[in-house]
Write a structure and sequence with these properties.
The chain is an alpha/beta fold. The protein contains 7 helices and 6 strands. The protein starts with 18 loop residues before the first strand and ends with a helix.
């Protein structure tokens, strides 16, 4: 490229609008827990936010959820950020392992590779494929961008030992909160703060 005095084309200076995809958990919806609050807060910060209504939420299936993410995200890029809750985190990870493109970053709230406290055989059958079907962590690590994972020290479903796996296998920034259960409250300012950090490229 010439190193003369001609300025670079102005198009290089336009900042692409950052998109956030919110993926709720098992039995949830875009109106569940902290999703509506986070959507509103991120929109106020200038993000374009899509809170997805995942299919058959009471009986989530891997392929249906991955296909739905693909249909709604369309083009993954480094200006795309994904935030999930519980099984929504699993869906995000499994979606990313099938992509050639890279995301800007992901925030995982109560993510898991193992589960405890399932209350019925039906729940165990729904969870079984998510727990047993192989997942390629190396590809996910390459495609995810920055990874932040929140765990609670008293989550009734997610063993705290999984936090170390997310740190070691995915290189995630792991944040362990006290007494937040399965993160089913209406507002968590620490999720918003990390979303802003990840979205702006701050550490």
């Amino acid at each position: 490229r010439s190193h003369g005095s001609n300025p670079a084309p102005a198009i290089f200076y336009f900042k692409k609008m950052k998109k956030v995809i919110l993926v709720h958990g098992w039995g949830g919806s875009p109106e569940s827990n902290w999703m509506p609050w986070l959507k509103e807060q991120l929109e106020l910060k200038g993000f374009k936010v899509n809170a997805l209504a995942m299919p058959d939420a009471d009986s989530p299936k891997i392929r249906e959820w991955i296909a739905f993410l693909g249909k709604n995200i369309k083009k993954l890029s480094k200006s795309t950020f994904l935030i999930g809750h519980s099984i929504g985190c699993q869906a995000i990870l499994r979606y990313l392992q099938n992509k050639k493109e890279k995301a800007g970053g992901i925030i995982l709230v109560a993510p898991w590779f193992h589960l405890k406290g399932l209350e019925s055989e039906e729940e165990e059958n729904i969870a079984k494929p998510w727990l047993e079907e192989k997942i390629n962590l190396n590809i996910i690590k390459k495609n995810a961008g920055r990874i932040v994972a929140f765990f609670s020290d008293n989550d009734p479903f997610v063993p705290l030992s999984d936090a170390a796996l997310f740190r070691e296998k995915l290189g995630a920034k792991v944040i362990i909160k006290k007494n937040k259960g399965h993160f089913v409250g209406a507002k968590y300012s620490f999720i918003l703060e990390e979303a802003k950090n990840v979205g702006s490229g701050n550490r």
